[in-house]
Backbone:
């Protein structure tokens, strides 16, 4: 590595895996003295034109002096990074710190010259853009604030790399050379560019896995049975449209086919490219398979093999080695211990999973970290009737297993702009990067519904196969933050499917008003009660009586949909009775006919033990083949064990959706239908509000620079500290948050002196930890009008609770009466900065009635957080009380949000109690903790996580 004369040790934290524009991966790392041969080999493969653009002159080969200069760095003033694939360089970048005269310099000089060289075969893959992000982050870490680059005018590709990066820059032209100078501080535009590139690259990397042109199943058994042979059969039977190969090194040399599929002993023996390899060999043989795949140019792996992190510490290390190995060759991995992937598109028809048959094609994207839950979800989506099972099924399915590489975040990037997916359903057992997931979820939910159920939420730990960042936030807080991002959070996979089926084929409701009609008064009343329980606004149920005909249902539904006071309709139906009662098919057709006439409102059906209605609702608009038919291109196969009774079918034509039949979901219970509707109503409201998220207001009296100087001075004392009373008041005061000072009163005389200084009336409080904020225990005396009352109260407290040194009494001037609230902000290492609000005391401490928002909070979010707690009516005049000054409260929340957002060193703030009166508010207690802020990888260069 580096010699003893180098000024810094090798910075291993600069190493990173990145996804490139075409979906492949590369490793970025510092260049060292050990890279001399790699550098020479790399340079030999660069074209003369690219060399000319780099050195402004013909430069056929590197001299020994050049090699020494380009491989010896001090990692401070001279830094070089390389992008590698398969251990070999494909691109390099370096910077040299310079002074004002343009000559080599050291700190405090804050400018550097930067230069790139990309191998011609890898140009256009976004390598230079990724290297620029990483060399920029390195430079900022080393105190460099600005880059300068000199580029020949003909080198338009490199000029575009710089100009498209989004940094603030200047351009000049002199002596035939374009000189670019740009600041390295991230801007809103540079972050937007970075996120857009991230989305395109990660979506492309998933697309390469889900839409392969050729698949090899490695580990295919010679005899029926076994995982590899089953996966091969599932791919073949689904009618996969690409090239399929069976691979097993134990095959006889003369074996050319297996079940009609070309057979090979190694992936190296396959003529032509292999896009996807399904690996089903024992874990000890996987490294050899990965090497063969990498050398053959395989683009991605689905590893169904077990024996990794789920098996213990040794398995976890084996899993990490697997990811490093695959990424070194530019491949991404689903798994290990994965159930597999499915793509129902007619152009692909890929079932590279352990599911014995393809699910129905449709518009739902399905992600499950657990194979068992994936089976359950696929099965329920198939079995559920109610209008979706005929046409609306699954577009793509991913079961990630141990989620060592490809995660839910990556699949969200793909589904965001996937034209075949309208609704996303996810079962998550852990969230590896909550901050990124929240960002992606917010963007996805603004375009298409995202429904999430999270398992292992009360176990205190992620499943053994998953490595995730620790979070100090309770599950309820994480759920609230997901809802803020537009995620439809449900608790069970039943609710996941219920909501997904409604979203897949019904429009979003415009509001919470629900019409209820049906042929059972009792079922209508149950539905009415369920609506009230879920916060909906039901209209009185319309009872059509048990003798209602199909025409009666049609007419009643048509009237309800035409009513401007209704936003959604729930139809309740019980089994047909009597000769005039409608049959299932007749009733389904009547409901569909009425719904089609007013397509802007959702319709749901609650049916009780109607064996045929759910199927009839589907058949009324379905083009699905009947049971027993086989999809074009697929082959029939009898399975001795079929836990999923899937039927393959021809997908609907997606080229024209204007005539797509409107399908009505059916539910076996009123509570399930109404709960799904309630979640969709809340999501619809979020979509409307997300169109105008508000703004983070500016306040002229905020002293941001003064607060920064104060924080720097305080942190100079140590790495983390809780501020004292005076320091807390000073820091908060710079953001316009004024705390009522509390003066210590270790003796009655000191209490009297404090009261005279503050002015009567005063309050006397015990601040010992067991009495703090516990007025119910009697540790507070209020409205003390004079010294006599103060001394009497002092004597009572000491008589009840002990000596003054145990009570820690303080004197504080009385604040106007109002509602006691609490405001908190904390920086969580996983989720980021979070603002919380609730009523002080029992509501927040005992009942957990707190609302949460991610920082920075906008004015609209401040308004919503005040109103989102269950005890909010106490702030707005409950039972005749005077409403309090909520605008002042909202401003306080915004100021605290600004403080934490502007200064990430402020890792915790608590204001308690905050007494909100009819006019104004009073902050009576405050604490602030400072510490070096947690690293924010969402502001750094793009990197793949290492679990």
Residues:
């Amino acid at each position: 590595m580096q010699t003893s004369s180098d000024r810094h040790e090798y910075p291993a934290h600069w190493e990173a895996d990145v996804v490139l524009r075409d979906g492949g991966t590369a490793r970025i790392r510092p260049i060292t003295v050990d890279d001399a041969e790699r550098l020479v080999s790399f340079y030999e493969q660069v074209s003369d034109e690219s060399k000319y653009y780099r050195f402004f002159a013909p430069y056929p080969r590197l001299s020994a002096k050049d090699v020494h200069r380009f491989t010896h760095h001090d990692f401070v003033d001279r830094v070089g990074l390389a992008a590698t694939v398969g251990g070999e360089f494909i691109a390099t970048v370096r910077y040299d710190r310079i002074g004002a005269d343009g000559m080599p310099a050291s700190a405090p000089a804050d400018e550097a010259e930067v230069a790139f060289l990309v191998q011609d075969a890898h140009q256009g893959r976004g390598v230079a853009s990724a290297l620029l992000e990483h060399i920029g982050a390195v430079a900022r870490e080393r105190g460099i604030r600005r880059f300068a680059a000199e580029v020949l005018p003909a080198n338009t590709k490199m000029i575009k790399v710089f100009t498209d990066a989004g940094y603030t820059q200047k351009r000049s032209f002199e002596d035939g050379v374009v000189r670019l100078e740009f600041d390295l501080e991230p801007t809103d535009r540079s972050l937007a560019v970075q996120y857009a590139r991230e989305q395109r690259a990660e979506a492309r990397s998933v697309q390469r896995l889900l839409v392969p042109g050729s698949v090899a199943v490695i580990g295919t058994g010679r005899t029926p049975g076994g995982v590899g042979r089953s996966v091969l059969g599932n791919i073949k039977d689904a009618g996969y449209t690409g090239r399929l190969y069976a691979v097993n090194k134990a095959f006889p040399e003369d074996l050319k086919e297996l079940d009609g599929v070309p057979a090979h002993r190694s992936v190296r023996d396959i003529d032509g490219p292999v896009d996807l390899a399904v690996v089903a060999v024992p874990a000890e043989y996987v490294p050899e398979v990965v090497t063969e795949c990498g050398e053959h140019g395989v683009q991605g792996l689905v590893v169904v093999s077990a024996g990794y992190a789920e098996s213990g510490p040794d398995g976890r290390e084996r899993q990490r080695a697997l990811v490093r190995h695959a990424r070194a060759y530019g491949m991404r991995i689903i798994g290990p211990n994965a159930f597999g992937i499915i793509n129902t598109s007619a152009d692909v028809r890929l079932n590279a999973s352990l599911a014995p048959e393809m699910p129905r094609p449709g518009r739902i994207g399905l992600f499950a970290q657990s194979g068992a839950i994936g089976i359950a979800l696929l099965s329920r989506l198939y079995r559920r009737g109610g209008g979706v099972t005929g046409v609306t099924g699954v577009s793509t399915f991913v079961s990630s297993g141990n989620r060592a590489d490809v995660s839910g975040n990556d699949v969200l990037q793909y589904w965001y702009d996937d034209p075949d997916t309208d609704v996303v359903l996810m079962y998550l057992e852990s969230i590896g990067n909550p901050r990124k997931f929240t960002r992606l979820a917010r963007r996805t939910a603004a375009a298409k519904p995202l429904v999430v159920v999270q398992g292992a939420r009360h176990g205190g730990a992620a499943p053994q196969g998953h490595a995730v960042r620790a979070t100090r936030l309770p599950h309820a807080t994480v759920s609230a933050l997901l809802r803020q991002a537009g995620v439809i959070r449900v608790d069970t996979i039943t609710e996941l499917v219920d909501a997904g089926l409604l979203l897949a084929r019904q429009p979003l409701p415009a509001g919470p008003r629900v019409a209820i009609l049906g042929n059972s008064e009792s079922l209508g009343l149950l539905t009415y009660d369920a609506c009230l329980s879920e916060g909906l606004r039901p209209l009185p149920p319309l009872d059509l009586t048990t003798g209602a005909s199909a025409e009666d249902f049609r007419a009643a539904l048509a009237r309800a949909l035409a009513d401007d006071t209704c936003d959604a309709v729930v139809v309740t139906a019980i089994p047909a009775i009597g000769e005039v009662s409608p049959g299932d098919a007749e009733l389904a057709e009547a409901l569909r006919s009425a719904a089609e006439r007013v397509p802007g409102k959702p319709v749901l059906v609650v049916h009780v033990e109607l064996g045929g209605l759910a199927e009839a609702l589907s058949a009324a608009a379905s083009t699905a083949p009947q049971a027993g038919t086989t999809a074009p291109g697929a082959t029939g196969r009898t399975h001795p064990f079929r836990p999923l009774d899937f039927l393959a079918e021809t997908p609907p034509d997606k080229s024209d959706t204007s005539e797509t039949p409107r399908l009505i979901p059916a539910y076996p219970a009123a509570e399930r239908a109404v709960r799904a509707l309630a979640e969709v109503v809340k999501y619809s409201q979020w979509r409307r509000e997300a169109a105008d998220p508000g703004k983070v207001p500016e306040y002229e009296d905020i002293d941001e620079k003064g607060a920064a100087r104060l924080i720097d001075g305080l942190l100079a004392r140590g790495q983390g500290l809780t501020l004292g009373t005076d320091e807390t008041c000073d820091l908060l005061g710079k953001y316009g948050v004024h705390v009522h000072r509390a003066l210590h009163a270790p003796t009655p005389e000191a209490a009297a002196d404090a009261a005279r200084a503050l002015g009567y009336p005063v309050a006397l409080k015990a601040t010992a930890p067991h009495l703090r904020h516990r007025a119910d225990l009697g540790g507070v005396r209020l409205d003390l009008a004079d010294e006599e009352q103060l001394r009497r109260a002092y004597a009572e407290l000491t008589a009840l609770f002990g000596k003054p040194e145990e009570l820690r009494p303080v004197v504080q001037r009385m604040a106007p009466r109002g509602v006691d609230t609490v405001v908190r902000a904390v920086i969580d290492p996983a989720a980021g900065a979070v603002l919380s609000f609730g009523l002080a005391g029992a509501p927040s401490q005992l009942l957990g009635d707190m609302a949460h928002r991610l920082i920075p909070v906008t004015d609209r979010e401040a308004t919503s957080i005040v109103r989102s707690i269950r005890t909010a009516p106490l702030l707005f005049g409950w039972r005749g009380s005077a409403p309090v000054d909520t605008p002042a409260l909202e401003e306080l929340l915004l100021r605290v949000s600004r403080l934490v957002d502007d200064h990430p060193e402020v890792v915790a703030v608590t204001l308690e109690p905050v007494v909100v009166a009819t006019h104004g508010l009073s902050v009576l207690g405050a604490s602030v903790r400072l510490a070096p802020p947690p690293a924010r990888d969402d502001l750094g260069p793009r990197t793949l996580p290492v679990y």
